[in-house]
Amino acid sequence: MGDELIPSDITAKLGCEPTREMIKGEPFCWSKNSKPRIARSGMWRLEAAEREPGDLDSQVSELLAQLTSDLDIWAALSRQYSMDIFCGVFMETSMEGIGLTADTMLALGQRGLEIDFDIYGPDDDENV
Predict the structure, then answer these.
(1) Under a CB-based contact definition with an 8 Å cutoff, are residues 59 and 101 in contact?
(2) H or E element, residue 118
(3) Residue 116: CA atoms inside 13 Å, Cβ hemisphere, count?
(4) How far is CA 32 from CA 28, 29, 35, 105, in A?
(5) What's the CA gap between 98 and 86, in Å, rounded?
(6) Residues 104 and 124 placed together within one structural domain of the fold
(7) InterPro entries, per this entry (predicted)?
């Protein structure tokens, strides 16, 4: 993300089309049924396929496999833009775990990518 981000420039550098993109000041819709809004910042986003049961490591690996492995490009992008991998984790029980292999964590670190989690526990009604 970044105010000066032009999605086509990021696509050219990363070698992959985004799932979603925004240009600051331009209208966008989150879904087909939502009303257009004006983007407050530029964004280039790539989404992994959903998995049940979840497999965070393979989803992160799936994303990285689609993108350039040129660490100079990643370094330049990380100096110019805010970059992360966002994960929504939906737990079915109160004692579940998620993990990333050392290779995946190394690949994220080499690219200057943080990983952010929103973790949702099971509904309390289901555990009564």
Answers:
(1) no
(2) strand 114-120
(3) 6
(4) 10, 7, 8, 35
(5) 14
(6) yes
(7) DUF4279
Evaluate whether 80 touches 2 at the Cβ level (below 8 Å): yes
With a CB cutoff of 8 Å and minimum separation 6, the contacts of 97 are none
With beta carbons less than 8 A apart as the criterion, state whether 120 and 89 touch.
yes
State how far the Cα of 27 lies from the Cα of 75, in Å rounded to an integer.
30
Helix axes of 7-14 and 71-80: crossing angle, nearest 10 degrees? 160
Task: Provide the domain limits for residue 38.
Answer: 1-47
Same domain for 37 and 69, yes or no, is: no
Q: Does the global pTM surpass 0.85?
A: no
**pLDDT tens per residue, range 23-75:** 999 999 888 888 999 999 999 999 998 887 778 999 999 999 999 999 999 99
Residue with tokens 């490009």: 73
Alpha-carbon distance 45 to 58, whole Å? 18
Are 61 and 118 part of one and the same domain? yes
